[in-house]
Predict the 3D structure of the following.
Amino acid sequence: MYQHRCSKKPTFNVVDLDPYGSPVQFLDSGIQTVEEGGLLCVTCTDMGVLCGNRGEVAFAKYGVMPLRGVFCHEMSLRLVLACIQSHAARYKRYIVPLLSVSIDFYIRMFVQVFTNASVVRASASRLAYVYHCVGCESFHLQPVGKVTGKDKYSPGTGPPVGEKCEQCNSIFRIGGPIWTEQIHNVKFVEKLLDHVRGSKESYHTSDRMDGILTVISEELPDAPLFYVLDKMAGFLHCVTPGMLAFRSAILDQGYDVSFSHCQKQAVKTNAPPHVLWDIMRCWVKEHPVKHKSEISPAAVCLAKVPSIQANFQIRSDANPVSRQNKMLRFQENPEVNWGPKSRAKKRKGNPLGETVQQKRKRLQGHRTDPLKVASLKQYKCKRFMRGECTYGDHCRYSHDVAVETEARSQTEHGEQQNFTNSATATNL
């Protein structure tokens, strides 16, 4: 691709980068190779890195810091888009995302590449850092830069939060920068939908394509990242409200809300965090909970008085078309342990002829100390005493009631002997 760089007039209409793992080593040449207005397709399969499991690796490869949160899959899309834009800006080029999707175990982005130095100078205004609360998982965006006038730019002002979270008094983690502009082109997605619906016989997965593209067309374009309803309820230890009821409460406050193709229980909205948590506080008033500690993050969050009165009456506009028509939006895995496998490598023969799942089951707990396991037989099984143990003879604990009494007597005898020896040594 370096033979067809910008200096030699790019000649490729479409460049598709789909390596095993990270495509970052090909971004520089791909950006320079594609022609003006051409299409650059990028696929990333290193989701463990981009979703925050290995943040130091993501920073070394992509120059960004991911966060482990409920929104990690959408954040990975925006992190890679920010990385692509940083490569493009070096050559006075910029990107326009057409479609960005998180599917199964990978992400894929389709962007157009253009050349314009004045647009490139505004690149910082399209990026932002993310302040993510480790307690309630509220997030706030800190723009890297901003446009103050025609051809006038300045650094962003902040921070947007205090030292502790206003909702639960927890600390923040900082990630990014992420792409904060639109990650989909609605007109492009609508054309794709028309094509898929008119050529269903050409695609074996046309129902899934129709469902995902429909959800994408319903997403809010100006609301980066999202919350997850059951995670919010889990944080407060309360009953999870109905999705339509919660969406109706947000709409009743004058804000917009949508689903996300990245997560089934996602709540993508332009409402600020305090409004969402006020709605949850109103819900807990109707469905009370009890907390053992008054200083826990959940108790601190619920101690605040809601500034609004939430209405959970279900509205007609709270249910999107994709949900009404029961489209195939989130397809389940076709089989157990389905997904990407490890990189191909040289292995010795497989004399047992076992599958990966069988080998995994055989080696499960093979490093456990057998002496430690055997020593547990001196203690009675509490589940067995309640009549709940289902392990039978394979249980590590004893099902003999007399064992615990004997073990306790031996322990007391040993302690008495130690005390006697200690007293004798002191007298001597």
